[in-house]
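Subject: Predicted fold for T-complex protein 1 subunit delta, 531 residues

User T.R. writes:
Posting the sequence so we have a shared reference for the thread.
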Amino acid sequence: MAAAATRSSKTESYVDNKRKDDVRQSNIIAGRTVADAVRTSLGPKGMDKMIQNGNGEVIITNDGATILNKMEVLQPAAKMLVELAKSQDIVAGDGTTTVVVIAGALLKQCLILLNNGIHPTVISESLHKVSEKSVDILTAMAVPVELSDRDSLIKSASTSLNSKVVSQYSTLLAPLAVDAVLSVLDPAKPNLIDLRDVKIVKKLGGTVDDTELVKGLVFDKKVSHSAGGPTRVENAKIAVIQFQISPPKTDIEQSIVVSDYTQMDRILKEERNYILSMIKKIKATGCNVLLIQKSILRDAVTDLSLHYLAKAKILVVRDVERDEIEFITKTLNCLPIANIEHFREEKLGRADLVEEVPLGDGGKIVKITGIQNMGRTTNVLVRGSNQLVLDEADRSLHDALCVIRCLVSKRFLIAGGGAPEIELSRQLGAWSKVLHGMESYCVRSFAEALEVIPYTLAENAGLNPIAIVTELRNRHAQGEINAGINVRKGQITNILEENVVQPLLVSTSAITLATECVRMILKIDDIIMVR
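User M.O. replies:
I've generated the structure tokens; pasting them so everyone works from the same file.
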């Protein structure tokens, strides 16, 4: 009887462990599946993905964060890899595919270690040590860079753009990204860049070659000239208003019945006088350009008010979005005006020229240039022949801006082309021989996992990955720490000399975020559904 009880208790404990192993295994497999989905889009020769949503809208991209964001991932552990790509996008802005591929390779090694009977906690602790050691190794490899060294900044932005769909325009977009970030850099806060100060305005038409940096403001709108108002104003005094130049409405839904035509005339006369008195107050301050915020309660302007504004020679841009107001007022160095009673000359912004500029393909934009006491902001007008190219150019430019932002906050450059990963793998492998016990075994496995980046780069470029990675290992063993895969020449060269560089922050955050995510997945031994 006692023997039977012992046997049953053993059986129960065995089933319990089996369930925990199954949960870990299913989580790791789900995570690896997500990593494999984006792995082919790594590097300059990586493939692009075409994503179609339920509305039939199509996106073509090879940006890891965008691909994963659009995927409908249901498995909870797989969702963690989607969040991982988002985290990398927030921290560094680039390397979103790299971080997911590294996490997938680490998960693969974790599964092998678990199947060899090593406890998840031991694996997790080893992974934490690997992460800290990796950051030290990468920092030792890095080359310091100064913001005055414009060429180095352009090289790192070009490296980011070379793996994008719009890579052929990297010679135009890279300098543009560098100039945009440096123009909004505040000397009082030299390590801080807010990319919300760089506004990207997308306008369909032309080609990506027509993309330009505008020192001033750009609106993807036409001037309201239905009543024949001006389309060009020099020595402009600009007001940003948040009230409506239209007759007031009742607070609640009411209908007013007018039975007599004389009353009708009186109402129309009152409306005219009401609008006219507002426009006289505006004109009295010398204001000659109005930027009117979009209104949801009633029309911001009516045909009658536009007619009077045109007679007063005031240029009108209407339907300015609410979330753009802060950027506009910061750029113009003016204050938004919420009520006609508060309309004062000191609240106006001043600029040399406000004009409507026709673009060759029938579209029009409004440009404000020569702004006096302009805030630290800038505009980038992005053009593209179709919506797919335009959206991808916007995403690519955002990545390039983030790369420069990384260099502002942490001023170190590191080689690209798989050089840091293979060097990490080599040094961690050597370090594992100094360690003892299971830790040594785990560190050696994770060192092998990091070879996935150069292996994938070679594979996506159509090279022989085994021969390339073996040669790369050999070169690094001889002390060439900047030797990497030159996918254009199809051979191993000194990547720093080839100008393939990236910010140190991109590499360090990729390693730390990937190891953090994998450790979290490892520690999960059960999934509990709550209804």
